[in-house]
Design the sequence.
């Protein structure tokens, strides 16, 4: 065969080698360590940062809003509906806890940027009232953000979102409402918000401020389950109430306690709402009695769990009715959980021996992980002595 | 608390395909004192998947090359078999459908040289035999490349035994294709895979083009049943069974060097780990400008090398779960390459230096190769272009999410325009990946996915010839898209094996010379 002539053809390898030698010889001798893409990635996902608590205010008689200002002056861009992960020191343990951000994204872009979370009192989240008891103005705290996919996505969602919330599940919708009122989020938002009594409404003033600033776009329907004086909707959030306030073709977003999720999920099914039009926030695993299929005969048992980190091994106790992540936390072995509901996979863990029960709620494991024994520690429970491997933190 | 041993023979930076393959290859040679440090909490690098709302979504893999059927295993397939890594491979139904509306071209080609040449003949009568001859040339070059990359030989021997390889090595894909005198339509039809090496045909070495064409058309291509995470996790599992220590969430920040020799690494967490060899998945650009400690150990030649060479492409990809079956949506093909404007790759190349809108797109509907990849009544669908990072360098944090949506929206529009299929109304889940996504998850330099350009002036043949020249620090090898064989998941495995080979050859050399410290 011949391409351009025998000599030129057979000299090809030498020719391209010479070209490459020249290419490299012409390279600048000055090192160029700048990588703007990684820099941007690190701005968007900075990981753990230090924040100072700069404001604490009542969000209702039973909840408090905390404002966090970044020590380094930068809050990464986030979207309404996303969450922040806190690293809380309790004794010798560092516990990770996630909260939806209740402030608006635009507030993180101000000259003095911040974000806020609003926390219900007396809610058992392994560390009840940690914030109330430990956080004062000026307190420094470690946190990472943003995480989660509970945000409006114009390429997928209807531009009319119906947010169904229960209790402190209102916070992502508070963020959305504020962003809409500020002219930065181009959607209509109807919030159907279930509370026990009107005194339990979380962020009521802020919701009302956003609504009155933007009455054409933001609608708030309060539903009280045990409030005789209430003049609006009463009872639980039912199909009738949802249908009454839903425009045609809207997207439903749900955030609230697990029991309410089961109800709303059933209603969505009954209404024939397509999958595309119903989203729900990741929530922490509920008490085991609420987890379908949980082996209740295990309650009260304690197993030995060998925890491998690198070449180091610890043996700790693990209660059968608590997630494996909690057992690690109780023994002051750090594990980086985020959503605590099984979905996000940050606490992906390797099972080296023994048996576990994995909650079917929000099971976010990959198929091959399931097959080869990897699980998410926030949503798996020991049913025998165990040996696991986790990342070194 | 002590998490690491006092010393390892080999530390591998990055538990992606190259790093895991390097470990397996070292283990095959009996080298078992290996530590793999991975930045993310998953193996595989880009060969991975993610879960949204309970649905597992393939992150990157279009087609795994070099696997082959059970009867005709190709290089990577043979290696996995030898290592005892048993992956449930599913054959991709067609090579590709190629659509170029302006010229009225719409043709689907299947694997098999005879098959595809007949498919072209059916549309362009009389050209089949010539296409077959061309594909046979590609295959001859492919076979030679596989031999020569592991078995060095003298120039005269090479010319005698591998004349086609030698005689085409100095030319671009365009230069060799031109000698066949094909009509432009056929040239266009034979061009689509260019994007899988990310270099226009006019400067792409024919050797690389031929490798790609022969590999894909010879045995077809494959995907693992449980997404590319199946491949990654099974490689990891095997490497661990063989004794390697693998630690996740450990980004290596420094490679420690003394008197021109690697002595260890230091992680972001602050662990200093001693070792004799480092196989780096991190790009040479990063290693030689940020990671080597002290930087005074970096020879100026290494800096000139990374500055002189051009980075290849990155990715712009929109991945979706759709709420209906491919059949109901009208999606008939696993893989479509669409050239909305032109198939002149030099022209497309200009577009690919921007952030779009892009007109040359690759779309994949995974369920058509892997039924059951998505829950019943749905499917997963991606649209991808592989642009240069250039257009993305000035992106601002504040604009990032809007930018991603615009990018995705334009790609969906273009796909809908060319195919006439409605995608937009069926989106259940959507994720968009950009170079920033790549940089975040795998830390690749400037979000690159394909290493250095496969251009004629950075030819794989020249890289092989200059292997010794490119070696700057004793004990440091590279494994990733930035290594000799370049980009793609198949070549990643080959690159990993080559790095392992360099390590054990050096070990043997030093042992023969009386031990490393002698």
Sequence:
């Amino acid at each position: 065969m011949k391409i351009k002539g025998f000599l030129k053809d057979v000299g090809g390898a030498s020719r391209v080698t010479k070209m490459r030698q020249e290419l490299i010889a012409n390279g600048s001798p000055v090192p160029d360590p700048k990588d703007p893409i990684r820099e941007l990635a690190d701005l968007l996902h900075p990981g753990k940062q230090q924040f100072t608590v700069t404001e604490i205010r009542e969000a209702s008689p039973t909840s408090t809003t905390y404002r966090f200002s970044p020590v380094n002056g930068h809050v990464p861009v986030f979207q309404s509906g996303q969450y922040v992960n806190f690293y809380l020191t309790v004794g010798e343990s560092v516990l990770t806890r996630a909260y939806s951000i209740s402030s608006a994204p635009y507030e993180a872009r101000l000259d003095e940027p911040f974000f806020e979370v609003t926390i219900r009192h007396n809610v058992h989240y392994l560390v009840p009232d940690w914030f109330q008891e430990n956080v004062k103005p000026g307190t420094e705290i470690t946190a990472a953000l943003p995480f989660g996919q509970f945000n409006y996505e114009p390429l997928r969602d209807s531009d009319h979102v119906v947010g169904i919330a229960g209790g402190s599940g209102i916070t992502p919708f508070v963020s959305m409402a504020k962003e809409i009122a500020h002219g930065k989020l181009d959607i209509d938002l109807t919030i159907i918000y279930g509370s026990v009594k009107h005194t339990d409404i979380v962020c009521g003033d802020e919701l009302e401020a956003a609504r009155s600033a933007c009455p054409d776009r933001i609608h708030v329907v309060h539903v009280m389950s045990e409030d005789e004086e209430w003049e609006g909707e009463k009872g639980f959030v039912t199909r009738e109430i949802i249908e009454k306030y839903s425009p045609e073709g809207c997207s439903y977003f749900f955030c609230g306690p697990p029991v309410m999720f089961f109800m709303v999920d059933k209603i969505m099914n009954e209404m024939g709402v397509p999958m595309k039009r119903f989203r729900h926030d990741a929530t922490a695993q509920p008490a085991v009695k609420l987890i379908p299929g949980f082996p209740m005969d295990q309650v009260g048992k304690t197993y030995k769990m060998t925890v491998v980190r690198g070449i180091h091994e610890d043996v700790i106790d693990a209660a059968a009715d608590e997630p494996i992540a909690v057992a690690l936390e109780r023994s002051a072995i750090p594990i980086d959980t985020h959503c605590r509901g099984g979905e996000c996979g940050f606490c992906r863990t390797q099972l080296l021996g023994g048996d576990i029960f994995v909650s079917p709620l929000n099971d976010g494991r990959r198929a091959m992980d399931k097959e080869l024994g990897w699980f998410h520690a926030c949503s798996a429970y020991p049913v025998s002595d165990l040996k696991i491997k986790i990342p070194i933190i | 608390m002590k998490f690491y041993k006092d010393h390892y023979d080999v530390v591998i930076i990055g538990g992606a395909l190259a790093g895991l393959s390097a470990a397996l290859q070292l283990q095959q040679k009996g080298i078992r004192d290996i530590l793999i440090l991975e930045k993310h909490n998953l193996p595989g690098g880009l060969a991975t998947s993610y879960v949204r709302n309970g649905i597992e979504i393939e992150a990157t893999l279009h087609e795994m090359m070099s696997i082959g059927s059970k009867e005709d295993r190709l290089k990577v397939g043979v290696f996995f078999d030898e290592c005892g890594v048993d992956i449930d491979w599913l054959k991709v139904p067609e090579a590709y459908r190629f659509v170029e509306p302006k010229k009225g071209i719409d043709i689907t080609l299947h694997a098999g040289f005879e098959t595809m040449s007949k498919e072209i003949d059916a549309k362009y009568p009389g050209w089949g035999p010539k296409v077959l001859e061309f594909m046979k040339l590609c295959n001859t070059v492919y076979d030679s490349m596989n031999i020569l990359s592991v078995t060095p030989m003298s120039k005269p021997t090479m010319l005698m035994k591998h004349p086609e390889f030698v005689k085409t090595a100095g030319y671009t894909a365009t230069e060799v294709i031109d000698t066949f005198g094909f009509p432009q339509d056929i040239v266009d039809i034979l061009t689509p895979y260019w994007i899988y090496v990310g270099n226009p045909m006019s400067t792409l070495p024919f050797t690389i083009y031929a490798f790609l064409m022969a590999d894909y058309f010879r045995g077809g291509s494959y995907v693992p049943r449980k997404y590319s995470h199946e491949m990654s996790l099974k490689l990891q599992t095997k490497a661990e069974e063989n004794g390697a220590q693998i630690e996740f969430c450990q980004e290596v920040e420094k490679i420690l060097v003394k008197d021109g020799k690697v002595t260890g690494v230091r992680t972001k967490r602050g662990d200093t780990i001693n070792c004799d060899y480092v196989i780096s998945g991190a790009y040479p650009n990063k290693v030689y400008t940020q990671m080597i400690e002290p930087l005074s150990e970096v020879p100026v030649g290494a800096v000139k090398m990374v500055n002189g060479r051009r980075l290849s492409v990155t990715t712009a990809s929109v991945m979706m779960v759709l709420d209906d079956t491919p059949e109901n949506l009208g999606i008939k093909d696993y893989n479509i390459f669409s050239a909305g404007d032109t198939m002149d790759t030099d022209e497309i190349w200009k577009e690919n230096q921007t952030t779009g809108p892009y007109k040359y797109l690759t779309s994949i509907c995974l369920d058509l190769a892997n039924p059951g990849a998505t829950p019943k009544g749905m499917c997963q669908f991606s649209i991808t272009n592989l642009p240069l990072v250039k257009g993305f360098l000035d992106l601002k944090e504040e604009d990032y999410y809007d930018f991603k949506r615009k990018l995705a929206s334009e790609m969906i529009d273009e796909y809908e325009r060319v195919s006439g299929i409605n995608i937009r109304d069926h989106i259940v889940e959507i994720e968009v990946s950009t170079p920033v996504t790549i940089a975040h998850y795998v830390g690749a330099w400037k979000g690159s996915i394909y290493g250095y350009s496969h251009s004629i002036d950075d030819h794989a043949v020249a890289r092989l010839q200059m292997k010794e020249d490119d070696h700057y620090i004793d004990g440091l090898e590279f494994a990733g898209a930035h290594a000799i064989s370049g980009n793609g998941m198949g070549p990643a495995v080959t690159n990993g094996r080559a790095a392992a080979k360099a390590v054990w050859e050096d070990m043997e050399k030093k042992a023969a010379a009386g031990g490393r410290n002698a």
Remarks:
- The CA atoms of residues 334 and 393 of chain A lie 6 Å apart.
